[in-house]
Design brief:
Shape: elongated
Strand order of the largest sheet: 1-2-7-8-9-10-11
Strand content: 15-25%
CATH topology of the largest domain: Metallo-beta-lactamase, Chain A
Helix content: 25-40%
Number of helices: 13
Largest sheet: 7 strands, mixed
Radius of gyration: 24 Å
Length: about 400
């Protein structure tokens, strides 16, 4: 049965929720699921904004049929060709041979790659417009946010921005589709942060370029491809994007990441975390072997400071810590202060190796010297760990 939701008198939400998905993009755990958003504008012409993933295809097509009624589908605007938004395009084009595809040249080429054809296509460039009656669509290119073909659509008459993957979030929608009808900060912000840094975060410069374009628009309604629709207090969320895309810490505090085989490196990390917290500094502690690397990346970007503690493994960094460092580098982690702790029973090496990777990232600052634990924490190494914690806490509070 259809489940269309009115956004305005002329705009309808046609998307759906997938609460059975385990891994988004086969990589990121989504225990609260994900929504796939699509929208229909009904004017003199009818305009569909994107399709959906196959997981919610039946719901989408029922919604579309209900929203269209007896009217034909005149246009589909394709903002982004990633299959979670385009997998049902072939079926749509077959069901609606009358439709004209409005998209970028790069997206049209991808459609041919995916489906072998692109249908009747109108290619648009930056600033091009399309009048569909009382509404005029203006197209805003957003390359590498986060694929090269991406664009957004702005409708000046109602201040609507169809933002593609920008301003999206993990998490299925809880009945309401509007951000102001949920406690977004409590229920969605962590998912939004994790979504941004893992999906879009590497392309901060490109996001900043699009934000500069958006600054010149009067935006009253933001319709992303995942997550809630924004119709109030969008400036709060926009400020998050400005911070995130500038690679700046969202909070002053310390994320402690440890990789421990038998518990001794964990013990060292916990001692540091407790000593930092005792100074009144916000601390979060993560076992990198059991926490998804996507969450670790998100939390590293969230905080101003980080402590990395790893046992030495095969004369190197423990494998899960090595993966975290590689992912941080791949996502352009930068502008942070960090400290390192190593453990080893006969030839501790992890600290120097971690520092070499961290110091190679942009605008990074090491606090103190690496702290070494030999097998298990003793009185001497415990004192050194607390000294390191004092330096880290002071740096958080003083800078």
């Amino acid at each position: 049965m259809h489940n269309c939701i009115s956004i305005t008198d002329t705009l309808t939400y046609l998307g759906g929720n997938d609460r059975r998905i385990a891994l988004f993009e086969s990589a990121y755990p989504v225990p609260r699921g994900v929504s796939y958003n699509s929208y229909l504008l009904k004017d003199e012409k009818t305009v569909l904004f994107d399709t959906v993933d196959e997981a919610v295809a039946e719901q989408f097509f029922e919604n579309l049929s209900c929203a269209l009624g007896e009217r034909p589908l005149d246009y589909i605007v394709v903002h982004h060709m990633e299959p979670d938004h385009s997998a049902t395009q072939r079926r749509l084009l077959q069901a609606h041979p009358e439709v004209t595809v409005v998209t970028t040249q790069k997206a049209a080429a991808m459609m041919k790659n995916y489906f072998g054809f692109a249908g009747k296509t109108v290619l648009v460039k930056e600033g091009d417009t399309l009048c569909v009656g009382a509404h005029t669509l203006r197209f805003v290119l957003a390359p590498m946010v986060h694929w090269p073909e991406v664009m957004m659509t702005y409708v000046a008459e109602e201040g609507i921005l169809f933002s593609a993957d920008a301003f999206g979030t993990f998490g299925a929608l809880p009945g309401s589709i509007f951000a102001d009808e949920v406690d977004f900060e409590r229920d969605f912000l962590a998912d939004a942060r994790r979504y941004y840094f893992n999906i879009v975060g590497k392309y901060g410069v490109q996001v900043q370029n699009v934000l500069k374009k958006a600054a010149g628009l009067e935006i009253r309604l933001v319709c992303p491809l995942h997550g809630p629709v924004w119709r109030r207090d969008f400036a709060w969320y926009l400020e998050k994007y400005c911070t995130w895309s500038g690679y700046l810490p969202e909070e002053r505090g310390v994320a402690v990441f440890y990789a421990s085989v038998y518990g001794h490196t964990q013990n060292a990390a916990e001692i540091v975390a407790s000593a930092v917290a005792a100074k009144g500094v916000k601390v979060r502690v993560y076992d990198v072997s059991v926490t998804s690397v996507g969450e670790l990346v998100s939390e590293a970007f969230r905080f101003s400071h980080a402590v990395f503690a790893s046992t030495t493994y095969n004369n190197g960094i423990f494998i899960s810590m090595e993966q975290l460092l590689a992912d941080l580098a791949a996502h352009a982690w930068q502008n942070r202060a960090y400290a390192v702790i190593e453990n080893g029973s006969w030839a501790p090496q992890a600290g120097g190796l971690m520092d070499a990777q961290l110091s190679a990232m942009k605008n990074m600052r090491c606090i103190g010297e690496k702290t070494t634990v030999l097998s298990a924490v003793n009185e001497e190494s415990a004192a050194a760990l607390r000294e390191l914690a004092a330096l880290v806490a002071a740096d958080v509070l003083d800078n």
